[in-house]
Amino acid sequence: MKSFDLIQPATIDEALAAWQPGASWLGGGTNLVDLMKAGALQPDTVIDVNRLPGLREIETLSDGATRIGALVSNAELASDMEFARSFPAIAEAVLSGASGQLRNAATVAGNLMQRTRCAYFQDPNAACNRREPGSGCDARAGENANLAVLGWSDACIATSPSDLCVSLAALDAVVEIRGREGQREIAIADFHLLPGDTPERETALQPGELIVAVRLPAEARQFAANARYLKVRERTSFAFAVASCAAALQMEGGRISKARLALGAVAARPWRVAEAETLLAGHLPDTDLFARAADAALAGASPSGANAWKIELARRTVIRALTLAAAGTPARMPALPASPFGELAGELAHV
Ligand SMILES: Cc1cc2nc3c(=O)[nH]c(=O)nc-3n(C[C@H](O)[C@H](O)[C@H](O)COP(=O)(O)OP(=O)(O)OC[C@H]3O[C@@H](n4cnc5c(N)ncnc54)[C@H](O)[C@@H]3O)c2cc1C
Ligand code: SF4
Which stretches in the chain have pLDDT values below 70? Predict the structure, then answer.
C-alpha cells in the first residue's frame, strides 16, 4: 500500500480545513481500505472522521423528519427498534447487506459513498474510465454479466452496489452536507450521478465536502405498514444484489393511494421510477397492475453486455416486491432479510 498521512480531527471545522486535493475521508474503512490495499485508490492523506462530534445520533426533528448522523453504523441503524418500525424497508435493506461484522464497522455516509464493485475498477492494472478518466473500459468486452441495464453510457456500465440507498431513494431521503462554504443539502435522487462522459464524477458532492447526516421526511413514516426491500443475489447472505427493489405503498380501503418504487443494482444510481408510482396510485393491488408497473420501471432498459437476462430478472423482482409490500410489512423482520426465501421459517433475526 502506498504510504499516506493520517489526520484525526476533533471537530468538523478542523476536518474541513484539513482536506486538500488527493485526500479521502475515512469512515468505517470497509470499502476505502480494501481499495487502498488493492492499489485501486491511493490517497495522499486520509482524514479519519470517526472522532467528529454529533454525527452518531438518530433523532426525530420537530417537523417529524428523522435525521441519521453520518457516523451511525449500518448495524446501529437496523437494530434501532423505533427506526426499524418506522422505516422497515430501510432496516431490511441494511440487514441484507454485507455481514454482521462489516455492518458494525460500516457507516451510513460510507455506504452512500461506497464505490462500484465492477471488477475492473478494483484492479489497478485494468482500463477503467471511472478510476482513471480516458483510460477506457475493460468491462465493455469483459465480465459484464452483472453490470448496468439502465442509465449506462459508452464510457461506463457500472452499477451502484448499495442496498441502503435504494430504500432511501424510495423514501425521498435528503443528504446533509458540510463544506468550507457552509451547509447544503441534496435530494438522494440527485446525489448519485449517471456516468455519461464523466464516470469519474460519481456523486454531486464537491471535492472537500463531507456528509454529516441523512434525513427522511416525516411523510416517509406513512409507508411503514406496507414497505419491503427485496434483494436477489447469488448467495442468500454476504453477497451484493444482482437486482433489488424497494417498494412502499400507502393503502386506503384496500386501494393503493400512494406508491414509492426504486430499483437497485441496475444502474449507477438507485433507479426511482415516478411513472410506475403514478400508474399504481388509485388502484386495487393485483399482479396485472404490478406487471404494468414493472414494465414502466424497466422502460428504456437495454443490455450493456451479456446481461439481457437482468432486465427480466429486475422486472420480476419489482412484481414480487410490490406483492410483498401490498401483503403488509411483517410484524417481525424475516429470518433472511430482503431474501426471496424470506418467508421460510427460521430463527427470527430481528425481534
Ligand atoms: C465483503 C463485503 C460485502 C459487502 N456487501 C454489501 C452489500 O451486500 N450491500 C451493501 O450495501 N454494501 C455492502 N458492502 C459495502 C459496505 O456496506 C460498505 O463497505 C460500507 O457501507 C462503507 O462504509 P464505511 O464507513 O466502511 O466507508 P469507508 O470505507 O470508510 O469509505 C467509503 C467511501 O466513503 C467516503 N466517506 C466516508 N465517510 C464519508 C463522509 N462522512 N462524507 C463523505 N464521504 C465519506 C470515503 O472517503 C470513501 O470514499 C460490502 C462490503 C464488503 C467488504
Ligand atoms: S464499467 Fe465503469 S467501473 Fe467498470 S471498468 Fe468500465 S469504466 Fe470502470
Answer: 343-351
